[in-house]
């Protein structure tokens, strides 16, 4: 099994930046894809970004503003969020899969989430 722990969330003003981290532990050698999703109250889970092999993909709402990266030695994936908007406010979840994955249902492991609030 794989365990995921997110960190780095908090309160930031519009236009500001924040970097989220997701540390993986357990059977990390089985991980092929890692990604980020977010969910606001009353809303469905939304795809944010994913790293599958050497390929990176982003949701339309964050493309050009967010960047996903990873440190294989630390078994950690990051989400750099720039030019944040109030609509980015949500709980952000890290996810991992032993195979190529894109949609939330294709991921096997999930973190507990970290809250990001964008407000003046």
What are the key terms here?
52% strand, single chain, 7-stranded mixed β-sheet, 120 residues
Percentage of residues in helical conformation: under 10%
> Beta-strand level of the residues, as a percent range?
over 45%
Oligomer: single chain
Q: Give the low-pLDDT segments.
A: none
Radius of gyration, in Å, reads 13 Å
Secondary structure tally: strands? 11
Mean pLDDT: 94
The end-to-end span amounts to 40 Å
Order of helices and strands: EEEEEEEEEEE
How can the largest sheet be summarized? 7 strands, mixed
Number of helices: 0
| Class inferred from helices and paired strands | mainly beta
Q: What is the general shape?
A: globular
Written overview of the protein:
The chain is mostly beta strands. It has strands at about 1-5, 10, 20-25, 35-40, 45-50, 55-60, 65-70, 75-80, 90-95, 110, 115-120. About 30% of the residues are buried. The mean pLDDT is about 95.
Per-chain topology:
Layout lengths: L1 E6 L2 E3 L5 E9 L6 E7 L6 E7 L2 E4 L7 E6 L4 E6 L8 E8 L11 E2 L3 E5 L2
Parallel strand pairs: 2-11
Antiparallel strand pairs: 1-3, 3-8, 4-5, 4-9, 5-6, 7-8, 9-10, 9-11
In short:
A hairpin with a 4-residue loop joins strand 7 (66-71) and strand 8.
